Amino acid sequence: METEPKRKPWKNWLLFFATMVIVFLLGLLASSITQRKAESEYVYKPKVKLDEYEPRNSLWGENFPREYQSYLQTADTSFASKYNGNMFIDMLERDPRMVVLWAGYAFSKDYSQSRGHYYAITDIRNTLRTGAPKGPEDGPQPNTCWTCKSPDVPRLMEKLRPIDFYKGKWASRGNEIVNYIGCADCHDPTTMDLRITRPALIEAFKAMGKDISKATHQEMRSLVCAQCHVEYYFDKHKPGAPDVAYLTFPWKYGTSADSALKYYNEIGFSDFTHQLSKAPLLKAQHPDYEIYLTGIHADRGVACADCHMPYIKEGGQKFTSHKITSPLANITNTCQVCHRESEESLRENVYERQDKVRQICDLAETELVKAHLEAKAAWDAGANEKEMEEGLNHIRNAQWYWDYSAASHGASFHSPIEVSRIIGLAINEAKEARIDLTRILFRYGKNSEISFPDIATKEKAQKFIGLQMEQLNNEKQEFLKKIVPAWDQKAKERENQWYKPENENH
Amino acid sequence: MKNFFRKFIPPEKWLKPVIVLLGIFFGLAAYAIYISRAPSYLSDKPETCINCHVMNPQFYDWAHSSHRQFTTCNDCHVPHGNMLRKYLFKAKDGLRHASIFTFRAEPQVIFIREGRKAVQANCIRCHEKTVGTAFIYMVQPNFHNYLKERTCLDCHRETPHKRVNGLSSAPNALVKTKIESRTERDEGEEEETGRGQHPVKKQQ
After folding, report:
1. Is the model's pTM score more than 0.90?
2. Is residue B199 in some structural domain?
């Protein structure tokens, strides 16, 4: 003890108090961090507890009123751009040549420009393509057609395996699927993270040897759209489920038009046989995501949501607009986030690309119509299957390439170069077909030009291919009057038994 | 020097309690480092800035802006060119933020103060070519000095953050884990693919 150097008492006290202050502050810091962390957990306090696959969008809207209200605005049909927009457009009326191109397939009956997500259920009920089922096991389409229409789909898929969901006729799930596309399709109810709810996309990634669960947040902002805005077909050869229309994306060799065609050829798939030319044709659905991937915006890491769901401000609050629509309807918050040009010139930039693509797309269409009619003339003249095979194959390719570009929403802007390339292939294939067919016709003594029918309007074109439109329309009206109200009634009874939020005013 | 440290060695019979107390002190310090994710502040990841949720509005504004392709928070908000200065700035700023935050003294609407100079220097660092025409450089190579108090941000107030209205201006910007993977990708594959490449496409 005595050897210890003497220290003055005040120094000891100083050391004591200094240490105390430091430890005190450190403790204060630590506890404040813990508190603040807990605080951030409570920044989002849900009013309503949502089920994993709650299909009622209005319930999600209780928790996220701004996002929900902007989503409700997808009901707006007032915006028209030069070629599209969000209003109802009868595409067959605008371009009656399509009636002939799809002769023998439901698209020749009815094909309109898609309206907002709000109309997903209304429009699939209204379209002539789903026919007029008289009972649950009647009608032309399978349940697979519901897959992209509603958050009721993941709700059902949670209970059923996908393959069981797809089983049966479209009318058999009419009373189950009533809520239009909404929150649960893309969002996790607790974290609001984006999520993939449709198995087809997950399986397509697997087919390409990729794992979709590794996708980054920015990729997810496109991939949730890619659950539906893609080319697909119905695989009816799934083991253990004969004749079930299993929703599949043709992505085994990649996502381009060529790799999909390669895949279809390999499995010997065709959607329909053309009524006039007897060509085994493919119907391209809407390869929006695939074509977007080839464009400059995708290359620069811009996601679908960046342009179609801009970040907007309402009063002092900022949020992602869920009014999913053409960016041309809101250039200020979309294009101009990056591009400092005037609205007018940006709009013109878009229209210029669309105009030019439209010009060559027109050529492809006209050539294709002629090819179909010439093929019919060749059959009529007595040509045999062996002679026709090559020509019909060219028609198949041509129609695939044309449809791939025409069916893709916004393709001419998403990727003008890729679309031009695809249409170029379409024109070439159509010309090749016509050269083949001309040779055959010549062989059978037909060396004058085939007379082309008057298909200037939708009515004329539909009459030409022999569609009984009045009957189809009447049957549809009957279906809408008799069957659909019963569906809605049954759905209402079901949902009334579910949890309801206390506040009924919403 | 040795003598100085010796002064702190307690007498034999105090040794055990002192060791225990020191253990408590360092344990608490380690705990503070752990829960504050202190090591993350050494990196340049934007997600570090939303360790505190008060920065959510700023983070989400940036994530929806044209600058997100090319800049992280630190590209603009800390001085560059000198490692020592950069980390000194970070330390100073971090301590200021930590103390304001600990005493709950943060304002509802956060405005940039001293950091303004660093941001201004960084605007010029990247946009050197656009802020001065060749002509200006020719006649007045020193023209930046003549901007005096005016900064780029005085006019370009919504670039790259939109107008920030307050701590509650982005209530639904829920900060989640998935976002982190984006920056990891950017850092990991930058050499190979370039920033902003769409990796889904790249793998085709």
Report:
1. no
2. no
